[in-house]
Write a structure and sequence with these properties.
4 helices; Phage tail proteins - horseshoe like beta roll fold; 13-stranded mixed β-sheet; mainly beta; Elongation Factor Tu (Ef-tu), domain 3; 4 domains; 21 strands
Length: 320
């Protein structure tokens, strides 16, 4: 029996499709739907269309459930097919208002409004007083709620499609017992930087309309300011926000180097997706990396005889 099971449903007709070698599944930590691409030989018996449901199972693991969005035909009778999971519909734009809801409750509201299927949605806990999201994608609306939650609670959540059901999970619960080391992949590149998303001084401004005064909240780290110079983040905040707590939370998230690791052709594990955390142990000449890193992007390639993955990881106490 083939390791790869690719099934397309066109109405009542269910077809198991023999795709060419190299079925590719791609996921990203935030803001992008899961994507499956494959190529089939044109065949009179194979009739399927845009919008048809697609399931992909590999070696018993449920990898992808989504829908055909693009068919690209070429002169050699090949059809290249691109499918996306339910999160593709989060690219829809709309205007929404809500009051006193958590980010997870707001997500449930959007899922109901667009008649999508909900899965395991964790409780994000923090009530957001009120928001008006005008002419934004559903991705952006949800991400704003998750960012506000992160800034106040220091808890990060990942939105993804779990084989046809929309899930929202605390990133800590997506940690895997998997180690990436020098033996795991064919090649790797490791970068550490203070050039983007690193700040050691947070300055928040609030226009107090009652007093007519501007209130300033500052949180900073003199040690890293001496080491790196002043790297300042500035933002105007809304009424009701706890300015000092938000400044402290932002400093704890951003007052560190950003670290990025790219791994090519690592041994494939179907549990690895955008938002997963993996153990990393690498000796890089002048530094040894031994910590958990978060999968920013994962590209899995499935062949009949092997399965490998190309990963981009961001690291340590990573930056959102």
């Amino acid at each position: 029996m083939s390791k790869a099971q690719l099934i397309i449903q066109n109405g009542a007709k269910i077809m198991e499709v023999a795709a060419e070698e190299g079925i590719v599944w791609e996921t990203t930590r935030k803001g992008v739907p899961g994507k499956l691409t494959f190529t089939v030989i044109k065949d009179e018996a194979l009739g399927f269309f845009e919008g048809n449901a697609v399931r992909f199972i590999y070696d018993g693991a449920k990898i992808f459930y989504g829908f055909v969005f693009t068919k690209k035909r070429s002169s050699n009778d090949m059809i290249a097919v691109t499918c996306y999971d339910q999160l593709r519909y989060f690219k829809n734009k709309d205007t929404k208002t809500y009051k006193n809801k958590t980010a997870s409750e707001f997500l449930q509201m959007l899922i109901g409004d667009f008649n999508l299927k909900a899965g395991k949605i964790g409780n994000t806990g923090m009530k957001i007083p009120s928001r008006i999201e005008d002419n934004k994608t559903l991705f952006d609306m949800v991400q704003i709620g998750l960012d506000l939650t992160l800034q106040s609670t220091r808890k990060m959540y990942v939105l993804y499609d779990d084989f046809g059901a929309i899930a929202l999970q605390n990133i800590e619960s997506m940690r895997l017992d998997l180690l990436i080391d020098a033996e795991s992949g064919e090649s790797f590149d490791y970068t550490s930087s203070i050039d983007s998303n690193t700040y050691n001084k947070i300055k928040l401004s609030y226009e107090n309309k009652k007093s007519g005064k501007r209130e300033i909240y500052i949180s900073q780290d003199s040690r890293t300011m001496n080491e790196w110079g002043v790297l300042q983040f500035f933002e105007t905040i809304q009424e009701g926000a706890n300015g000092k707590a938000k400044a402290d939370a932002l400093l704890s998230l951003h007052n560190q180097k950003s670290r990025e690791l790219s791994v090519k052709r690592a041994f494939g594990d179907p549990r690895v997706r955008g938002g997963s955390s993996l153990g990393v142990g690498l000796y890089l000449g002048d530094i040894t990396v031994a910590n958990y890193m978060v999968v920013e992007t994962a590209k899995h390639t499935f062949n009949e005889s092997d399965h490998y993955m190309d990963l981009r990881l961001i690291g340590g106490e990573f930056v959102a």
